[in-house]
Amino acid sequence: MEDSVRIDDEGNEKVFVDTTELRYRFALENTGKRPIGSSEKPIGAVLDHDTDLIYQIALKRGFGFAGTTVIPPGETGDIEISYHLGVSDDPKGVSDMLPLPEPEILDEIKDTVWNATLIIFEWNSDVGWWDQEEYMRDGSLPEGTKVLMRFDLREHKE
User: Fold this and answer.
1) Other beta carbons within 10 Å of 50
2) 127 by DSSP, 3-state: which?
3) Measuring CA to CA, which residue among 151, 149, 147, 143 is closest to residue 122?
4) Backbone phi, then psi, for 118, in 5-degree steps?
5) Are the beta carbons of 3 and 92 closer than 8 angstroms?
6) What are 86-123's pLDDT values in tens digits?
């Protein structure tokens, strides 16, 4: 990989490295008559993977969640779950991210990305922020969680 040098807003040269992520994006359409989620019970999502491999990598390298917390009737909301896999090359040591796993591990990840179930839920924000890391460690959802749907990705593999 060639270093990508860019000039930032202050005129300083910055070196950027290529990062690799496993990213899932979902669109949820509310065809019902009431909103899904609320400020007191926002929507959350997690992928329940058949293997712990992705969780093990995510807990070491990082992960993210972004998405709509409320979907009004007749509207669509988006959810994104990402797992940071590492940097492909960092010859100048500018990144604090770990390097990519070995090719065999990456192949195993590729073979298992569809072996998961998407779980959409409303969680009780009164009990505090939901910790996705806790789910990866022990499979627990927050107290007062109402599971809205489970979507098996294996059935929709392209």
Assistant:
1) 13
2) helix
3) 147
4) -80, 125
5) yes
6) 887 665 565 667 888 999 999 999 999 999 999 999 88
